[in-house]
Amino acid sequence: MPRKAARNDLDALLLSRVRLGIMSALAGDDELDFATLKEILGATDGNLGAHLRKLEDADLIRARKRFIARKPNTAYRMTDHGRKAFEAYIADLAGLLGLEPAE
Hints:
alpha+beta
């Protein structure tokens, strides 16, 4: 079966394992907090924070800061732009692998 042509410009922002992991986790959940993302990805605080900041700067995710039992809590959710970028990235990967995209 011939492979479908895929764009050659896979979103470089999502090529990082951690950033792709963040987007994948957020695609399955409406909102996740920092501690949950850290546990899912096995990342350090500094590493995860840097990757989250890059995704925020690109408007792919949005942060919500609040206090829970007097402790700071930051939760993240994917923006509409982020969801479209993530779906396009997955479609591009499927094309490169010669897979039919899920409907």
